[in-house]
## 1
Amino acid sequence: MFAFTSAGGAAATSVSPDAKEVSHTVSATLQTSGVADYWTPERMRSAIPGDVLAQKAVARGKSTARAAVEQGQSTRISGKAGKGKPSLHTDENPVPHIGKVFFTLGGVNYVCSGNSVASTNESTVSTAGHCLNEGPGAFATNFVFVPAYLNGAAPYGKWTARALYTTNQWSSGGDIQYDTGFAVVSPLNGQTLSDTVGASGVEFNASRGLSYKAFGYPAASPFDGQSLKACTGTAFDDTINPGGTTQGIPCDMTGGSSGGPWFIGSNSEGYQNSINSYGYGSRSTTMYGPYWGSVIQQAYNNASAN
């Protein structure tokens, strides 16, 4: 998640189902040799929450008017079962298909959150666009996914990305409404990611205002990024900066939770339908996420088929 200053305005309008947006996906192929070994426990603990990567993009005010953002036909891709106090967040036990992502940009090591999602290649991880591309700018290197991370442990291993995908809207313009990316990871010990930890179903072009449970590994104060947290709530439009398609739920997770999955319903078994993207201020009580429409679906399709 990242923070940025607010600007007043009127209430947001609804998405037009007839509006269209050209869908372009941008990708990068990564070298994988030695990447898992690079991420020692010390480097993982010292990685910087990735929310700082998106602050410049949001400050530029790069966004597309809501009327121009597409809503296509509702699409669901079913998932696969895996093996095995007053607050806006809850403490959660590790979930096999949810984990942390670690990566390098500009010579600096960062950390976000991610989730294994259903895909043709059984090897696709969802995260925030700003957790794999500068938006606009370079793609990350040294990208690994560590499912069910807990206090430095990697019970299912470190899965090295061989390719990264995001929308052209994010990689070229830093448009926060398209802040989603997908990493394709290499097999580990002869097994695919989804065979090992399972994979969430995904849904695109869903109704607005749904109830969600969002997960992540917040690492910025007062959290330490060492365990999984979650927030629940009914989504509502961003009225602080209206005119976009992003939605928010009550949540106090901080940086490091970026890229963590939003599931429709009340648990981690629902269909994933967004990711943790941003909040307003260092003590935000709302987490916002992008609307998963046809453009983000195309980025998913391209990653899934790789």
## 2
Amino acid sequence: MSSIVPTAEAMQKLAQSPETGKVVMLNLLKFKAGSGAESYNEYGRHVAKILEKIGGRVLFAGQVAQSVIGANGDWDAIAIVEYPSRKVFLEMGMSAEYQAIHHFRDEGLERTELYAINPMPMP
């Protein structure tokens, strides 16, 4: 089962990546029962303002309707967010502005998985 906090090893690996261009973060989200979705939506409203300032953007967010392949996920929602670089993503996470709103994420999520994805050229 996933956690909601990345390990120090995962963050170090992300920071040491030789990739310098845009990175897309795939967020798989499972909300806490009760007001979890509401808390996470509050986090989303605040983080959207930060993303705008740093040149990031939400590419897609939505509720999972059903699993077609991979029944073990049981995710409530996904979010796909583009950042100018891994460095910008890491700097955002360490910023005072982000730290001030991060509690909404913690209050909302039961578990999550987060994947850094390199965009591929399309034919």
## 3
Amino acid sequence: MHEFSLVQSLLSRVGDEARRRSALAVHSISLRVGELSGVDPDLLAGAFEMAREGTVCARATLRMNRVPALWSCPRCKKAFAPGEVLHCASCDAPAELSEGADALTLESLEMEVP
């Protein structure tokens, strides 16, 4: 379950940010989860619930914004529908992933600071 190691890294990063700002607590964490990231949101949420105890994030909520995979032509910007061949008939160019990549991105934190 790689979600647990992702949560451990996330909590380490958030802890560093909280210490840098002398935060008393973290109230919420927002993540962007790319459709192609291979992350199971339910497993990630469960791992977060277990791992956050005893940390500055002990009472924090985790919000995940799922980003669907979107493909487009790099030349003419034509968008490709799911299941469509990822090659532009007009430009003869292969499609590029424009959204929903394999990234897991920390979007925002809400912290209580003195």
